[in-house]
Amino acid sequence: MAFWRTHPFAWAWVPGKYIHGDHAPLVLTVSLRRHDLSPRWKEVVQPARGRFTHHLELRQASEIDDQIRSLLKEASSLAE
């Protein structure tokens, strides 16, 4: 599932459809213009200059907390 404004800024996806082995039931991917240094990210990649894609494994709904909501708001504002 993709979240859009004029551009996509976040995605929720089921890794079991693409990856074998032990993994979380859901991954939230957030695109930012900066590298967020939180240790919560499973992986952060820079697919293009000035774009950082952050992957967060989710096992419980409570993991979407104020920190993640704030980053989603930041990502959303950049996608206008």
Short description:
Helices cover 16% and strands 38% of the residues. The protein has one helix spanning 66-78; strands at 2-4, 8-13, 26-32, 43-48, 51-58.
Number of strands: 5
Count of structural domains: 1
| Contiguous runs where pLDDT drops below 50 for at least 5 residues | none
Strand order of the largest sheet: 1-2-3-5-4
Structural class: alpha+beta
The rounded Rg comes to 12 Å
Largest β sheet strand count, sense and barrel closure = 5 strands, antiparallel
The coarse silhouette is: globular
Order of secondary-structure elements: EEEEEH
Key features?
16% helix, alpha+beta
Structure description:
This protein has 80 residues and is α+β, with helices and mostly antiparallel strands. It has one domain (2-78). It is built from one helix and five strands, in the order βββββα. The protein has a five-stranded antiparallel sheet with strand order 1-2-3-5-4, covered by helices on one side.
What is the topological layout?
Layout: E1 2-4, E2 8-13, E3 26-32, E4 43-48, E5 51-58, H1 66-78
Antiparallel strand pairs: 1-2, 2-3, 3-5, 4-5
